[in-house]
Amino acid sequence: MRFNILSSVILCLSCVACTHSQTEPTRLCSQYDNILDIRHNPNVRQKVVGCYTDAGSWMGFTLPADTCWYNGFCGPFSINHRYFMADCAVQAACGNHSFSDFVKDSADYRPGETYISSIAGDSHVEQQMWFIDANTALLHISGNGNLSIGSGKWADGVTLERHNQFVTANHPSGESLVIGFPNDMQITVNEHGYLAQSSSHEAYLTLSFVCNKKEMAGIVQSASNILKEPTGFMRAHHERWDGYLRRILRDDVSTEFNRVAVKSVVTLISNWRTNRGSLLHDGIVPSHAVGYFVGFWAWDCWKFSVALAHFEPELAKNNIRAMFDFQQPNGMIIDCIYVDPSENNYRDSKPPLAAWAVNEIYEQCHDEAFLQEMFPQLVAYYRWWYNERDHDGNHLCEFGSVDGTTEAAAWESGMDNAVRFDDAQMVQNGENAWSFNQESVDLNAYLAYENTLLRKFAKIIGKEFDDPNYGELTAQYFFDDERGFFFDRRLGSQEFVHEEGCEAYIPFWTQIATHHQMKQALPILTDTAKFSTYIPFPTLAADNPKYQSDGYWRGPIWLDQTYDAIKGLRNYGYADLADKYTEQVFTRIKGLVGSTPINETYDSSNGVGLTAPHFSWSSAHLLLLYMDYGK
Q1: Phi/psi at 593 (5° precision)
Q2: Residue 20's pLDDT is what?
């Protein structure tokens, strides 16, 4: 089956999606109603489960829940500080009705936009929202009578002030919301809120999120420009989103598979955060719905960037730059970074996949300048592993830590509680350099692939790189011929760590394994009692006594690892088998083709979502599976 990008004739589908008007053509995004369920009313006892956010903004909005209707979008929600500034900063009514008179008619979250329609007797109001940039969302309100616009309840400590046609709500955190109104609206403000009224039946408003007062003047000026010509900014927004989908969607697969791809794009873009504080470049957080995931993680960034390269390559580049902004003098890339640098984790790194991400961007853009920029930093990071994580100097590395703890060393592997590390201990390599007493097959397979790509980059940009490639050594050393599978090995004794786990997928993904090794491993990979589970390729063989289908790295599905296994099968000529397993992923994961958020992990026995909804790397690898399917 050939991979065909949707024809460029879809370029004509570039007008407003959500107005429900008979006079406007249908946009590509409008084909994906209720792409994600983001119904949520602000409640201090309940965590936000996901919101509409876009363009790198640090604010988000939810759709009001059916059980307690607000006649407006709920929020804004502060993604960094995890609070709702208001239960509903903008509510709308028309005619002689109050906000509370209106009840739900319909509500929708489509790619790049939200929509609600409400009724009160013969009156009706429609509201649409689009993010114009990282600071400002554009809100369109229309009704069949004179409009009244006001706010719901504000969070404790919020104070309101008015300057001309702008109302500013200041939160004690230092963040502010600035609401811009059209010139024909009469606005009053008191300690409880504001009320804006107009004889018009239609209005455009701006909602701007200001992270610190230094940004205020510039953001207000930008909002003023948006209000002068809102439809032009709206069209540019629609063109951006239809462009994303045009670059991704295929016309040779099912509508269900296309919906999974679109949901993956929406999830990645909803986790885009612009530069702020010590985050010097834009990037992607693992999940905006989980408080501890609103920083940037190293190997997460590499994975996100591979998917982003196909539809938002500039963001993919900045995502990589954000992590390299904190590259240490010895070449190390630290684990994770936050707006507040005191929260950064310098105790460990993450598996080396940065050159893979840079290569995917190059293959999509052919940007040699980006290769020139990244090459010396990539080489320094590559060599750091051999300088700091090769305890016995045999050119085979170990995961480790800066502080000598097994906790940070497990984090460095990315597989925090993996069974293979249950009995591992630490050995010191030098000052601030420690390793597990265990050489890991996945780490060395990654490094062999990085070496191959660095050689490729050097040739393209005319640089020197002749570091030896230890891929053949890795494939030979970590393969147990008696068991027909890849395993870690102990330092010194060289004993195999006989735990059949997802680390064994990586030599096939990086293509350093021999075809004979794939033939030997295939019975294990396809055994329904081991890795061919209901959702295929769990993190641990299902017949291991320590296997738990919902046990984090001890049995559930992480979609990056499932992708690695499926891609490995495809690499070695088993395309039909790879397609079969891809179909199982797409059809068996609960809610994947519906409006359920994409999760961090899944129960391998039944496809139920487990940890962290709205998860970026699951979305990235669903996109990669989608793009490979049928090849």
Answers
A1: -90, 0
A2: 35
